[in-house]
């Protein structure tokens, strides 16, 4: 049995919206990731998936709950431990254009982490490591002295991945790491990520909205809606038997690349609107085709269902479902 | 037989840049018939947006430059129309919606005024009637409280709602052709479905032809009647939606169809990819543009550009493999596998 590497317990994060409204971007989200596995987090824009990722790498502080990395609460760690954690948990960002410093060469981008964490004594060793990293992600050593603008989107994302790998992390948070790329390039990057996972025993938190790619790379998937986790299951289970009405709607909405496929009319009407902190009841209430009174009045808890996945829905857990 | 509305013939278009002449569109021809949806697919940089923006004449010259070719709308050559002449067509005959509904609406104007502006530019009707028409349009595209919405600004709407407003503006004067450049790329999937369904409904109701640019083959399968596949500034294959999905002939089309993940997990094998990146269009390759990435590349592919070969009345492809002297090759995965 693989050990949990990351445990997120009742994580909360609030932002102040317009007119001083408090908006709870992440509301009591809990999940664990086992070592060497990939957890995919999916959901529409504004569901809080990026906020979760950013809180895990401490780009944001949590407003409640805990993030445990190998049992250690990362938000309570002292400076020295935090620095160590930064080496263990790395991030790959969405936009390969704005996440690389345009004035730095690839060498100095990749070298930066090595310097900060004092991983090598001499410049020569560091350069050797940079060459090794470039080859690891499918580029070559001649690329080291170039600037980011000389590369295509896919190549830049490879540099972003090399930067994350440079300090030998254990966990990598990929926040929409392939969304900005072309379809044929997306597949290349996904293959690279899987290949690296096998070779370096990495653990991924893979945040994306493209469910095809998430399905391909993930062992488990967590579905988020407006800050809450509505369903969590193994990838296979989720696609075979989605339980939460939102998960179903989401899966139905994906256009199938087959002209003979008869697509159902979408069951999800309307759109997700951010809710203030005072909101009680299920956050999916106003769009849910099965909503009853109880859904308006109380927030369903995430509970295990007979079929093996966990789901937060009053109706799914009721007897006559 | 449906009438051909729009025809683009042997069109070449370049941009003059400091680095040199970028040959964005290299000799393409396509047509759009009444009431049909043509989807243009391809990677970024393949020239698909440049091709359709030229139909609307949205690219300033310089840096853009027409090298050769014709754009014919309803029998009339509009290739060298002036801005004033184009104004008669834009909105009334040809309309366009864009990828990003945030930047394509005017943030300083109430949406009601933006719709009414379009209507009154083409029809001399009193403002009160135009307001009524705007309300009707907003109802049609599914905006709640259409009357109150007229006096709201674009930033108060969500992405999906803004795209609905864009569609309302585009359809205000019943255009014959709606050009949609990646209309749902910036939207969430559930919103995307709603917008695509809306576009299909409106097409049925008004008989509008749609030219749709997208890279999402799922969207193409749902929307298109015919498909044109673009690569490196050329249309490499064109055909009906069934022909392209079930009997594609060009290796690039095969690659596109294969790079959709079919296996459901990483435990079941690697994703098919097209190795490499598209060629530089400042110095386009002499032969076939796809040669450097093609598994089946032959010597001739690097030297001479393939001619278009017709496969059926509606399908044609540009590839040396279709030449009778070429070796027979099989596509590796015969069919688009069904999704569970």
3D architecture notes:
- The complex is a heterodimer of chains A (321) and B (340).
- Chain A is α/β, with parallel strands linked by helices and 321 residues long.
- Chain A has one domain (4-317): 3-Layer(aba) Sandwich (Rossmann fold), CATH 3.40.50.300.
- Chain A is 33% helix and 22% strand.
- The mean pLDDT of chain A is 88.
- Chain B is an alpha/beta fold.
- Chain B has two domains: 4-224, P-loop containing nucleotide triphosphate hydrolases (Rossmann fold, 3-Layer(aba) Sandwich); 253-322, no CATH class.
- Chain B is globular and about 70 Å long.
- Chain B: It comes from Amphibacillus marinus.
- Chain B: One of its GO terms (molecular function) is ATP binding.
- Chain B: One of its GO terms (cellular component) is plasma membrane.
- Chain B: Its main location: membrane.
Features:
heterodimer; A: 321 residues; Rossmann fold; 4-stranded antiparallel beta sheet; 11 helices; 12 strands; 33% helix; B: alpha/beta; 2 domains; 8-stranded mixed beta sheet; 30% helix; ABC_transporter-like_ATP-bd (chain B); AAA+_ATPase (chain B); ABC_transporter-like_CS (chain B); Oligopeptide transport system ATP-binding protein (chain B)
Low-confidence stretches of chain A: none
- CATH class of the largest domain in chain B, please? Alpha Beta
Q: Note poorly predicted spans of chain B.
A: 334-340
Beta-strand residue percentage of chain A: 15-25%
**Secondary-structure-derived class of chain A:** alpha/beta
Subcellular location (chain B): Cell membrane
GO biological process, one term (chain B): peptide transport
Organism (chain B): Amphibacillus marinus
GO molecular function, one term (chain B): ATP hydrolysis activity
């Amino acid at each position: 049995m693989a050990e949990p590497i990351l445990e997120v317990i009742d994580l909360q994060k609030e932002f102040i919206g317009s007119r001083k409204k408090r908006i709870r971007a992440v509301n009591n989200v809990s999940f664990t990731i086992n070592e060497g596995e990939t957890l995919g987090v999916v959901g529409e824009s504004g569901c809080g998936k990026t906020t979760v990722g950013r809180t895990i790498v401490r780009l944001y502080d949590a407003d409640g709950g805990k993030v445990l990395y190998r049992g250690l609460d990362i938000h309570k760690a002292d400076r020295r431990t935090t620095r160590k954690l930064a080496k263990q948990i790395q991030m790959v960002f969405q936009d390969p254009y704005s996440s690389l410093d345009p004035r730095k060469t690839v060498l100095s981008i990749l070298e930066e982490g090595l310097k900060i964490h004092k991983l090598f004594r001499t410049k020569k060793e560091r350069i050797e490591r940079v060459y090794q990293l470039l080859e690891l992600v499918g580029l070559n050593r001649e690329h080291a002295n170039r600037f980011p603008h000389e590369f295509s989107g896919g190549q830049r994302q490879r540099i972003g991945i090399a930067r994350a790998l440079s300090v030998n992390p254990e966990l990598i948070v990929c926040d929409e790491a392939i969304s900005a790329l072309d379809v044929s390039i997306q597949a290349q990057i996904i293959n690279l990520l899987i290949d690296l996972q096998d070779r370096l025993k990495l653990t991924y938190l893979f945040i994306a909205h493209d469910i095809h790619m998430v399905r391909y790379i993930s062992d488990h998937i967590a579905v988020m809606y407006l800050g809450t986790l509505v369903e969590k299951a193994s990838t296979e289970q989720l696609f075979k038997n989605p339980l939460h009405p939102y998960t179903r709607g989401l899966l139905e909405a994906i256009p199938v690349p087959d002209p003979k496929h008869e697509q159902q009319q979408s069951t999800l009407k309307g759109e997700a609107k951010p809710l203030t902190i005072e909101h009680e009841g299920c956050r999916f209430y106003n769009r849910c085709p099965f909503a009853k009174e109880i859904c308006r009045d109380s927030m369903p808890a995430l509970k295990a269902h007979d079929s093996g996945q966990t789901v937060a829905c009053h109706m799914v857990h009721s007897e006559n479902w | 037989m449906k009438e051909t509305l729009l025809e683009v013939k042997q069109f070449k278009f370049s941009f003059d840049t400091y680095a040199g002449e970028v040959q964005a569109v290299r000799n393409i021809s396509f047509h759009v018939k009444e009431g049909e949806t043509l989807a243009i697919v391809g990677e970024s940089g393949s020239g698909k947006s440049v091709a359709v923006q030229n139909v609307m004449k949205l690219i300033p010259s310089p840096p853009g430059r027409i090298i050769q070719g014709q754009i014919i709308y309803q029998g009339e050559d509009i290739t060298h129309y002036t801005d004033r002449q184009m104004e008669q067509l834009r909105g009334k005959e040809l309309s366009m919606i864009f990828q990003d509904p945030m930047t394509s609406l005017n943030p300083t104007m109430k949406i009601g005024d933006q719709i009414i502006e379009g209507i009154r530019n083409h029809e001399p009707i009193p403002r009160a009637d135009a307001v009524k028409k705007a309300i009707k349009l907003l109802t049609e595209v599914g905006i709640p409280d259409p009357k109150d919405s007229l006096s709201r600004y674009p930033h108060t709407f969500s992405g999906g709602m803004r795209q609905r407003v864009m569609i309302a503006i585009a359809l205000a004067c019943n255009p014959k052709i709606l050009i949609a450049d990646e209309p749902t790329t910036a939207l969430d999937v559930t919103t995307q479905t709603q917008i695509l369904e809306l576009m299909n409904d409106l097409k049925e109701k008004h008989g509008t032809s749609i030219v749709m640019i997208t890279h999402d083959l799922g969207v193409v399968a749902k929307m298109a009647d015919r498909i044109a596949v673009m690569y490196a500034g050329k249309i490499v294959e064109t055909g009906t939606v069934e022909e392209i999905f079930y009997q594609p002939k060009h290796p690039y089309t095969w690659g596109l169809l294969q790079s959709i993940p079919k296996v459901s997990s990483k435990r079941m094998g690697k994703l098919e990819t097209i190795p490499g990146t598209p060629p530089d269009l400042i110095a386009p390759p002499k032969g076939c543009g796809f040669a450097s990435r093609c598994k089946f590349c032959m010597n001739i592919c690097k030297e001479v550009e393939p001619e278009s070969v017709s496969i059926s009345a509606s399908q044609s492809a540009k590839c040396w493999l279709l030449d009778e002297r070429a070796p027979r090759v099989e596509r590796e995965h015969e069919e688009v596998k069904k999704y569970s």
